[in-house]
Amino acid sequence: MKIRTVLAAVAVAGAFSVTAIAISGVPSKEPVPSAIAEATLWTPDPLAPPRIAETNSVRPTLAQADVAFEFRPLPLLPVSLADTSLPSIEPPLVTWSREIASGETLDAVLSDAGLDASDRAEIALAIGAEYDLRHLRPGNVITVVSETDGKPRRVELAVEDGVRIEAVFGEQLAARVLDPDPELVTFAGETVIESSIFAALDTADIPARFAVDLAQMLGGTVDFRRDLAGGETMRLLWREARDGNKRIGQPELAFAALDIDGSVYEIVWPNDGSGQATIYVDGEVLRVFAQPVEGARLSSVFGRRTHPVYGNVRMHTGVDFAAARGTPVRATAPGRVSFIGRRGGYGRVVEIAHGSDTLTRYAHLSAVPDGLTQGQRVMAGDLIGRVGATGTATGPNLHYEVLVDGRPTDPLSDDRLAEAAERGADDTAALERLSEARSLLAERLASEFAQTTTERL
């Protein structure tokens, strides 16, 4: 019943909708309003033609050409091709380096670096042309720079004093010597002697080798075993050749001051390479003295010892200074050359007479200056030879003797040579050098103290 009622309602609604649509679709019979009708008849007025203003401008006239134009193809512009070749690329390199061990040869080290026999032979010939390979020492450094396939490009041998010998592979193997360009730096230090000069220097981080220089200079004036009671103050000024943070060669003393038993002993070394020094006591010139080999290491002292070659115990009549072959040897005091030649186990020798009773002997020399002759007068610090290993010697060194009335005496303690040495410089100039050295020492010590204080803060 309910369903029928719903259907009837839907039908009635539909009938009303159809009737409404039909009524709206019948056209209206009402007339159109007059205003709208007039609007539909309106048209715009026609546009007036534009007016061209007359001016005095001149129009270009085209000249009539009597000749017909000829069209030709444009020439091609030259094109410069840029160099498009790729840059050459260096192959990656491998660096190998190590020190030469005791007893090793250059060939053995190069073999350890992986080089073949032919390359090793070429390198040895090239480096050997610039450096005597017999002088190789433990600690010398070999550096090999190679390509990844093992082909060597550069080999470098670093020897003493920052010198390097470089062999470079190219069209042919070439070698050259590279010398360092060091900077000369001045240092100062102060220490108190408790047991020995050597120990005091070592404790203060001052080169301990200076103990030998001081013993040489003051050996004839001060008895270090007897006069040093402990508590003495020592101040030093020295020079070092530096390549960056690396020291080149050995340090050289410039000034030393030592307070002993109420007296002040001072020594000023010049910077002219002569090794000649002036000794002062309480501000007055005592004497001029020169050490035989500047900066050398004292390798053997005066007295009984086991002979390094023969092995038996015998008297060593001088002192030995170990130094590189060719190091300058200088006269320790003024005198006259009494002998130049060879004396058995001494090898090549120069002897200098200082008065009638004192003589100095310089042995194992490798060479003597061409201009040096027997009977010639020499001054303290004059060049008389070069360190070598002639005669009975285990290596390059200077054997230095002092003979008094023909008998050997300890060169580090005898005072006869000091008495024979004359004052080789004017006292006024010597005192000026002392004043300059004192001022520089005070300045450097103040600088060192300020730097140490800053580092602690």
From TrEMBL:
GO terms for biological process: proteolysis. Residues 314-411 form the M23ase beta-sheet core domain. Its cofactor is Zn(2+). GO terms for molecular function: metal ion binding; metalloendopeptidase activity. It comes from the Bacteria. The keyword Hydrolase applies. Residues 98-158 form the DD-carboxypeptidase/endopeptidase Mpg-like N-terminal domain. Residues 1-22 form the signal peptide. Its EC number is 3.4.24.-. Keywords: Hydrolase, Metal-binding, Metalloprotease, Protease, Signal, Zinc. CDD domains: M23_peptidase. InterPro entries: Cell_wall_metabolism_enzyme, Dup_hybrid_motif, M23ase_b-sheet_dom, NMB0315-like_N. Pfam families: NMB0315_dom_I, Peptidase_M23. This is Murein DD-endopeptidase MepM. The lineage of its organism: Bacteria, Pseudomonadati, Pseudomonadota, Alphaproteobacteria, Rhodobacterales. The gene is mepM_3.
